[in-house]
Amino acid sequence: MTLHLECADELLSTTRAVRKRLDLTRPVPRDVILDCIRLSQQAPTGSNQQTWRWLVVTDAAKRRALADLYRATAADYFPKVRDRARERGETQTAKVYDSAQYLADHLHEAPVHVIPCLLGRPPEGPAVRVGGFFASIYPAVWSFNLALRARGLGTALTTLHLFREAEAAKILGIPDDVTQAALLPVAYTIGDTFNPAKRPPPETITFFDTWDSR
Amino acid sequence: MTLHLECADELLSTTRAVRKRLDLTRPVPRDVILDCIRLSQQAPTGSNQQTWRWLVVTDAAKRRALADLYRATAADYFPKVRDRARERGETQTAKVYDSAQYLADHLHEAPVHVIPCLLGRPPEGPAVRVGGFFASIYPAVWSFNLALRARGLGTALTTLHLFREAEAAKILGIPDDVTQAALLPVAYTIGDTFNPAKRPPPETITFFDTWDSR
């Protein structure tokens, strides 16, 4: 077995949202993307339905159109959340927003946009059932991201374009009965050394047997 | 760097939903769970909000109560979906349901039930925004699962108890403004050799630039 604890932990703790360190000049071979999708297919889906589909966008005009949509939403959203984070003294989050703005500005330059989708639309009814629906795609999206990392590539899991999902669907010819889950700008990373993010100890977010009980 | 491609790929392709090979007799130390939660905290969250919380249930009466809820939903759901899968000749899925039934029957015996939660409730409005909400927990849930695997433990990502989320909340004292995302029965696995699942080639689920274009 080639599965070592140190390696697994490094993979899980150094796969960061890469926004500024995407190499926007280096092409990404199609086979690398397909290889990461192949690994993503080992993630679980509800009832083993495997209703995931992946749209891989390299066409420059389409990437620009998607980036324009993304930026239109970001323009409404980022300054508000960044200022709130600064007011609250959440410096890590404020920094994330500066980095997110950089990514938005350069989004069309990312050599590949990957859009994971699910066949079908989220069920009507209690919102939590919608959670069960999306539980069939985000583990695969995260596996795809981890597989990229192991190959010297990176991305950031963004969902902002979903506010304009119908417009994105039009650009890409996605049918009405398909649900987009994210937009992943993919590129080789500049350097391959990434440090774990600073996080509070797990004890601070974990309860035992009863809510609020430590 | 201890991050090797072979090891990453093995982790991603052999972390299976473990239902029959959970060791129901071996206790799971609290520190192992906390260590896996620590790794899950490196997964991304929307706006870096880190609103995840983890509820770790070892109390036998509570595990039994959760398992009873789970089985009540499963009794409605499993036979229907299994029969449909058999009719359609989806033998892999039909087999998954037999295994899921086994897990349901033994759920109270799993030494730990882990319930990942998000502070807040899913937003009202277009269902796709609900997806953005849950994108802040399922990557972490999957990282937790991958971290378990690297330590000789396993689980299955289940969402069935969410159909009775309010009843589960009552058992565990979870407030109304918190959202449960899954129920993970955690245990050491019986043996540590797992094979990748059989999947269709990635080319069959991937489109380029336009939907349906290969």
Shape of chain A: globular
Q: What does the main sheet of chain A amount to?
A: 5 strands, antiparallel
Strand content of chain A is 5-15%
Radius of gyration of chain A: 18 Å
Largest interface by Cβ-Cβ < 8 Å: A-B, 106 and 107 residues
Runs of chain A with pLDDT <50, length 5+?
none
At the first level of CATH, the class of chain A is: Alpha Beta
Order of helices and strands of chain A: HHEHHEHHEHEEE
Integer tally of domains of chain A: 1
Task: Tally the beta strands of chain A.
Answer: 6
Helix run count of chain A: 7
Give structural notes.
Two copies of one chain form a homodimer. By secondary structure, chain A is an alpha+beta fold. Chain A has a single domain, classed as NADH Oxidase (3-Layer(aba) Sandwich). In chain A, 44% of the residues lie in helices and 13% in strands. Chain A is built from seven helices and six strands. In chain A, strands 1, 2, 3, 4 and 5 form a five-stranded antiparallel β-sheet that branches. Chain A is globular, with a radius of gyration of 18 Å. The interface between A and B is large, with 106 and 107 residues.
Topology at a glance:
The structure is a homodimer of 214-residue chains.
Chain A: H1 5-14, H2 30-40, E1 52-57, H3 60-87, H4 91-106, E2 112-119, H5 127-134, H6 138-150, E3 153-154, H7 165-172, E4 178-180, E5 184-188, E6 206-208
Antiparallel strand pairs in A: 1-2, 2-4, 2-5, 3-5
Helix pairs in contact in A: 2-6, 3-4, 3-7
